[in-house]
Structures are given as structure tokens and as C-alpha cells.
């Protein structure tokens, strides 16, 4: 048993090396095909709420991509968020990070949360989500893009939600910089306030309200 545990860091390192090699080969292929490589490789996940299954069984990886062209091919192929049924989510995360709080790269982090009114599903939702995806894959957050883990859109009957997840909730400078730029890209007015919640606070919330750590 203990030997298995001592091998874990080594296995993780090997896994990271293997992933890096695969990414390099993928980029070389992309460039040779005249495609435009992204700075990171991204994974799109889909969650469908089937009450008869465990949460993780409802989450599935759709595909991974690492070029601009492959992103647009994917985006034009999948259903728009506004057409999904209630209880469904899309998540876009950097390759190697799973879209759940428990992932080692998410657990100390949090999220900038955009809560939409019901009627915004037909007017703003798809634009906001596409803008969010562009912020991620285009690394729009200057020196703090490395802090970004991914983004999630929740389609819910009582109001849809979009969030950008970051790595370190205590990194106030990085988190607020990301929030400001995100708000700007969504075209939200100065009057609209968005809040950042630490995952740890969301996980241990009492009642339905999670305390907000930062606002922009």
C-alpha cells in the first residue's frame, strides 16, 4: 500500500510529461496544417442531470482542442447553451483540470459568478457564454491568465449562471484583475456588480447564500 502512495507523485510527473509531449506533437501537426495554435489545450465537458445516476456519471468529456480552427469547428457543431434543457451544464477547462471543486487545481480557488434573469436566456446568454470562452482561449487576462482554470455555464429554470473559475481565491490582485477584464468583455455597465466566491465557502455555505469575497 505505502509503495503505491510513494509512486503517486512520480506517476503524476510522468502523466504531465506524457501530456506535454502529446501537446507538442499536436501543435506541430496543427502548424503543419496551417492552423493557429492556442496557448493552452482545452477540454469541453457536458453535464446532463439524470437523477438516477451519481453526479460524476452525469459528467462527460466531449472533446479537447488546441487550435483556433478546432475551437470554431466544435462551437458550430454543438448545441447553443440557450437550447439546452434545464439542469444541463457546459464546462470548458484547461486540459488536466476536471470541472469540479475537488480537483487539486480548483480546490483553493473560486469563481466570478454572473447570474442571469430568466428572460436573458433569449437575449444575452449565448453572447455572454461565447465571450467567456473567447476570454479563456484567447488568454485575455494579461499576467493572470495562468490563474484561470476554466468556466462553467449552468442552465437552470430559475435563472442561468455563468462563472469563470480561478486557481487561488487568496490572490486578491489576480482575482480582481480577472473580474474587471471579464466584466469589460461582457460589456456590463459600471452599475452592474459581479461577485467572486471561494469554492470553500460555497461548499460549506449555510442556507442558500454563499458569502462574496470580492466584487467589481
Automatic annotation (TrEMBL):
Name the Pfam families on file.
IF4E
State the InterPro entries in the record: TIF_eIF4e-like, TIF_eIF_4E, TIF_eIF_4E_CS
Record carries keyword Chaperone = no
- Look up keyword Aminoacyl-tRNA synthetase and say if it applies: no
SUPFAM superfamilies cross-referenced by the UniProt entry: eIF4e-like
Entries under Gene3D superfamilies matching the protein = RNA Cap, Translation Initiation Factor Eif4e
Q: Which UniProt keywords apply?
A: Initiation factor, Protein biosynthesis, RNA-binding
GO MF terms here are: RNA 7-methylguanosine cap binding; translation initiation factor activity
GO CC, any one term = eukaryotic translation initiation factor 4F complex
Could you say which protein family the record assigns here?
Answer: Belongs to the eukaryotic initiation factor 4E family.
- This protein is called IF4E factor
State the organism named in the record: Nycticryphes semicollaris
> What broad taxonomic lineage does this protein's source fall under?
Eukaryota, Metazoa, Chordata, Craniata, Vertebrata
Amino acid at each position: 500500500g505505502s509503495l503505491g502512495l510513494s509512486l503517486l507523485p512520480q506517476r503524476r510527473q510522468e502523466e504531465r510529461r506524457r501530456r506535454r509531449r502529446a501537446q507538442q506533437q499536436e501543435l506541430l501537426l496543427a502548424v503543419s496544417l496551417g492552423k493557429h495554435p492556442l496557448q493552452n489545450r482545452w477540454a469541453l465537458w457536458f453535464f446532463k442531470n439524470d437523477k438516477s445516476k451519481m453526479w460524476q456519471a452525469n459528467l462527460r468529456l466531449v472533446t479537447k482542442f488546441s487550435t483556433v480552427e478546432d475551437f470554431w469547428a466544435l462551437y458550430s457543431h454543438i448545441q447553443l447553451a440557450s437550447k439546452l434543457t434545464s439542469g444541463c451544464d457546459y464546462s470548458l477547462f484547461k486540459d488536466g483540470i476536471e470541472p469540479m471543486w475537488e480537483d487539486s487545481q480548483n480546490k483553493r480557488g473560486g469563481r466570478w459568478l454572473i447570474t442571469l434573469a430568466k428572460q436573458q436566456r433569449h437575449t444575452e446568454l449565448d453572447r455572454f457564454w461565447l465571450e467567456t470562452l473567447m476570454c479563456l482561449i484567447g488568454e485575455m487576462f494579461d499576467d493572470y491568465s495562468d490563474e484561470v482554470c476554466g468556466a462553467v455555464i449552468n442552465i437552470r429554470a430559475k435563472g442561468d449562471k455563468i462563472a469563470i473559475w480561478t486557481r487561488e481565491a487568496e490572490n486578491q490582485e489576480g482575482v480582481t484583475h480577472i473580474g474587471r477584464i471579464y466584466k469589460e468583455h461582457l460589456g456590463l455597465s459600471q452599475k452592474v456588480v459581479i461577485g467572486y466566491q471561494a469554492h470553500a465557502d460555497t461548499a460549506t455555505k449555510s442556507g442558500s447564500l454563499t458569502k462574496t469575497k470580492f466584487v467589481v
